[in-house]
Amino acid sequence: MLFASIAAVSLAAGCVGALEPMGPNQGDDDQGDDDQPAPGTPDAGTPPVGSAARAMFEADVASAMAQCGSAGCHGGTGNSPLKFYPTDLTQLYTTVTSYDDRMVGYFDKTTAPMLKRVSPGPHYTATYTADQVTKISAWLDLEKTERATGNPPPTGTPSPGQISKQLISEWSGCMTLADWDADGVAVAFADMGTNQGPCVQCHNTGQASFIASRDSTLMFNTVSGNKYFMIAFFTPNVTDVANAKMEVNKSLYERVGTGVYPYNEHPRFNVNNQAFTKLQSFYTKTMAKKAAGTCGTPKIPAN
Ligand code: HEC
Q: How far is C-alpha 3 from the geometric centre of its chain's CA atoms?
């Protein structure tokens, strides 16, 4: 049963992602791209306020998403699960659409996580009515059409989704194998125990977008080179955009380890152990590189 759900959880892993702020040198992430998204970004950007798709979102979709926005879920502050429901609801449209892969799936209604994770539901307490599914699908279709016919590229302040991508990209260049090895992160995670055996037993090859391998180099390359594997360890917190930064995604493990939905069937484990101490040590070293401006070339592109 557990294994049967691996693929589905992998696809759904975006929900555990988080946003992040930029730390003390906020707004100066050494990449010179703070003020505008990189050219050619797949972020389709924000259509003019008057666009028909945006109007459709506000009329037909926003109300269906109100159920997502409690502080323990996708509203409030923090880094996990993905905080796409802003306090200022005039920002809902731009925030949701800025997560081009993790929310709207490039406006493909057959894959868009905001639709597929909730319908068929329930997803936690959330469900869409048939009418809401129809409306969200129609909106995604219209966005796709509008954007295909040439909307202006993103301008102005970067969106939460864009900041998240920049932070993840930058972080991928700040992490070093030398620090990872020195802290022994890989073995500590591989050997962390549960009531059904150590993590490595099931996550050795990255099941459910979480890798725990005793092969330190393999695990490092996976975590530093792939966004979805990275966010299981380090995830952006962009709920305070001015202070967006990467954070240790400890809350994911607190949920998984205690069997919080949708991890009800997951083996139980305690997060207060040396693996998280090592991960935190590695995080501190990585953050220091960022602060010192000594990060390497990003392995994960920003777009
Ligand atoms: C007996 C097999 C098994 C063991 C042991 C196991 N897991 Fe899992 N894990 C799974 C399965 C199956 C899933 C996907 C389904 C689910 O979430 O329950 C999963 C999902 C996860 C996820 C969710 C990833 C995501 O982004 O949704 C995390 C994180 C995770 N495991 C961490 C751990 C950690 C940490 C350990 C060791 C302390 C561990 N697992 C031990 C089987 C296992």
A: 23
Q: What is the whole-number distance in angstroms between the Cα of residue 82 and the centre of ligand 1? A: 19
Check residue 159 and give its pLDDT. 83
Residue 208 CA to its chain's centroid (Å):
14
Residues with Cβ < 8 Å from 164, sequence gap 6 or more? Answer: 17, 19, 20, 99, 236, 238, 244
Return the closest-CA partner of residue 208 out of 42, 7, 52, 35. 7
Residue where the block lists tokens 């000594």: 294
Select from 148, 151, 134, 137 the least CA-distant residue to 49.
151
Q: What is the pLDDT of residues 128-137, one digit of tens each?
A: 999 999 999 9
Query: What pLDDT does 194 receive?
Result: 97
The residue nearest atom 16 of ligand 1, judged by CA position, is 263
Report which protein residue has its CA nearest ligand 1's atom 39. Answer: 199
- Give the dihedral sign, CA 40/44/45/51: positive
Residue ranges lining ligand 1, Cβ < 6 Å: 2-3, 5-6, 9, 13, 16, 192, 194, 196-197, 199, 201-203, 207-210, 232, 252-253, 256, 263, 265-267, 269
**Which atom of ligand 1 has the smallest separation from the CA of 199?**
37
